[in-house]
Amino acid sequence: MNPSKRVSVGILASLLTATALATPTASAATAQEPCRIARTTLNLYAGADVLYCSTVPGAKVQRIANQDPSDVEGYINGSSEHQFLCWTTGETHDGGNNIYYFTYVDTLVHGYGIGWVKSSDVLTTTHPFPGMSRCGG
Hints:
Structural class: alpha+beta
Helix content: 10-25%
Strand order of the largest sheet: 1-2-5
Number of strands: 9
Radius of gyration: 23 Å
Strand content: 25-35%
Largest sheet: 3 strands, antiparallel
């Protein structure tokens, strides 16, 4: 083979290898699944239409819709599809609004293991999530 062709083939092979390594695969994808409203059969919310959505790992679940550290019921582990029953308004939080979602904890600190998660810990771009019920009304 001509020496200049060998160099060209070598460069092409290097470029193809670099491109393959830089291209994300399905298993390496980091995009979150979209949130959705669906009927659940879980005991806590049986028969209700709930929001299924990803969360920030370690999201705090508060006893009431505020940011008081003494009101922590527990934490959400960051599952890809956590369930939220409804939403309400409460104390303004660092997410820039006052929307909170009602849910259950994955890791219990104390209390009943249910409470409110600030909207910025629920990975959707619209708060409250369209089509989701407001709590108590």
